[in-house]
Amino acid sequence: MFSVSVPPVSVGSNVFFAFALVLISVIVLFLLRRFLTLRATPAYLLVPIFLALALPASVVLLVPIDLASSSRDDGTGPKSIWLPDRVVLVCWRIAYWLIFMLTWVILPLLGDYVDSGYREPKARLIYSLRQNARYQLIVLTCAVVGLVYVIISNGFHFSSIKGLAMALAYAWGLVLAIYLMGHGLVSIPRNLFRNGNVSSRLRRVQAQAPKVHDRLMDAVNELESLNAQVAQLQQRKTGTARDFQEWIEDLSEGSGSADVRVPILETPEAASAVPSVITERYLADLTRRLQRARHMKARFVDEWDRLVQLAGDLQAVINSNASKKLEFAQAPRRSRVKVLTPYLRYQLHSNIIPSVRMAFGAFFSVASVCIVWSELIKSVAPQFSAVSLTIVPNWKDPKPLGFGKQVITSAWLLYMCSAALVGVNDVKVWGNRALVRRNTYGESACWYASLVARLTVPIAYNFLTFLPKDFRGSTTFDQFLGRLINLTYIGTGFDFIFPIFILFPICATLFNLYGRIKNVFGFGMADEDELYDVESNPSGYGMGGWREGRDLIERELNGFGSLAVSSRGTRSTWAADRDETDSRGSSRLRVSNGEGSRSPRTSQRPVAAPTIVDGEEEEEENFFQSFAHRVRNTFETTNKPQWLQESQLRLPRWMSGDNTTTEEDGVTRLFGGRATPGRLRLG
Fold first, then answer.
1. Which site among 46, 71, 229, 453 is 20 to 30 Å from 561 CA-CA?
2. What are 293-326's pLDDT values in tens digits?
3. CA 286 → CA 46, 63, 398, 433, distances in Å?
4. Is the entire prediction scored with pTM above 0.85?
5. Cβ-based neighbour number of residue 602 at 10 Å
C-alpha cells in the first residue's frame, strides 16, 4: 500500500480569520457612527474611509498569523492561527496596495473634493486635482531622483520601479510614525499617572477652560461674520447675484436660527466684504469658509460641553470625600439608569479607578521602555531586544509561534499603533482638523483615515525588525515588502538606523522641550498642553489661569452661561448650538444639591463687548490710524517671553500697554490717533 501525504487544512484558522474580519468591520462601523452621520454621509466618502480604517486593523491581525504560518515545520507545531502561504501572500497584496492607493491618491483627492465649496461635481473634481497637483509633483520629483539611484545600483527592470514606490512610501511613513510614536510612548503612561489624582486633574481641566472658551468665542464670531455676508447676498436681487440665487438660498438655509449670544468682539462690516460682482469662485470660497466655520463651532461646542461635564464630575468626586456618597448631576450624555449605590460609586471613582490608572500607567511605562530599548539595540545586539525576548525567547533556535505568542505579538503591535495615534493629539501642527462626535468634517475624516492607513504598515514592518533575522526572513511580509526595502544599501541603513531618532520626540515630550521653546519665543508646537500652564502659573492668577477657567466652568454649571448678558436670562449659553428638537441638548449641567457648589465668581479676563458711546457712529479711520492700532495691539496682546520678564530692560511707554491716561501717546500720535478709553481696537 502506498501512503499518500495530505497537507493539513486550516479549517479552524479560516473560521477564526473570517470571524475576526467581520468583528473588525463591525467595530469600524461603530467607530464611524460615533464620528460621522452614516445616513447623511455619501457613499463615495464613507466606503474609502471604512477601508482606510478596516485594512490597517486587519494588518494588526495578519502579522501574527504570518509569523505562525511561516514558522510551522511541515505543518506541525503548537496550536495557533495559521493560513497557507498562498493565502497569506494574497492577503498582504490586497491589504498593502489598497492602503497604498487610499493613502496617496484616493483620500487626498476626496478630502479636497469635499472641501472645494463648489456645487457641480466637475468643478469639485477640477479644484481637487489642482490642489493636489503641487503635492503630487513633489512626490514625483522625489520618485524620479530615487529611480535614478535605483537604476544605477540594480539596473532597470519592473521590480526596481515597484520597489522604489514601496520603499519611498515606507520611508515617509516611518519618519512620521517614529516621530508620533515617540510622543505617544511618553504621553500614554503620563496621562494615566496624571489622571490618577482627581484634584490635579481638575486643575488641569480648569486651566484648559479659558483656551477652549476663547476658541469657541472666535468660532462663534467667525460664523456670525460669514452669516452676515450671506445675509447681504440675499438682499441683492439684481446684477450677478440673480445668477446664483439658488446657491445663495442654500447657504442661508444652513445658517439656522439666530444666535442668542452677543459677540465679544466687534464684527467687521459685512457689506465691505461682499464684492460688487458675484462670481462662482467667490461663492465657492464663501461656501468653503462657511462649512469650515460651522464645523469649527460644532467642534468647540462639543469640546466645551465635555470639559464642563468633566469638571463638574471631578468637583463632585472631591466634594463627596466628607459624606462618602457620590451623586453626579444629570447630563444629556449620561444614562439615567443607576446601578451602583452612592457609597459604591464613591469608592469606585475615588479609590478603585485612580488605583487602576496608576497600575496601568506603570505597566505602559515598562512597555514604552521596552519598545524604545528595542529600537536602540536592534541594529547592534538584536538578541537583547526586549520585545523579541517576549515573542522568541531562544533567538538562536526559534521555535514555532503558539497562540499565546500571537496574542503578545498583536498586543505589542496594537500598542505601537495606538502610541502613534495618540501622538497626533499631542503635536498641534495639523491645522484645524479634529474629530467631533457625530459631526466630523468630511475633509478631517479623510485626513485622519489617511493618517491611520499611512502609519500602520511602516509600524508593522518596523516591529518585524525587532525579531531575529532568520525568523522574520521566512515570513511572507518580509519577502513581500522587506526584500524591496533592502534593495539598496541606503534602504537597509535607513530601516535600521533611523528609528534611533525616536529619542528626539521622547526627550522633547519628557523634558518639556516644547514648553521651554514657548517660554523663550512665545510660541510652541504643543502650546495647548494644560500641564505647562499649571506649572508655570500654579497660583492661577492672571489671564488664562486655572482660576479664570474655574469661574467660567462654574458659570456654566450654575446656568449663568459664559457671558453675563441680562437679555439671555437663565437660558444656557450654548442652547442654540444643539439640535433644536432636543430641549435637553444644552450644556447647562446643574450640580446636585448634596454637593454644595460654589457661588459663581466674576471672570478675571475682561469681556470686550461692543461699545456704543452716546449712540454716535464711530468715525471711519484712515489707513495710518488702522495700521497704528494693529501695531499697538500686537505689542499689548503678546505675552512676554520668560527671559524678557526676568530682565531689567524697560520698554517705552507706547509698548508697555500702560493705559493710565485717556489719550493715546507714542507712535499712534504720529498717525492721528485719538482717545479710546478702556477699549481694545481691532482694526
1. 229
2. 999 999 999 999 999 999 999 999 999 999 999 8
3. 25, 47, 62, 19
4. no
5. 10
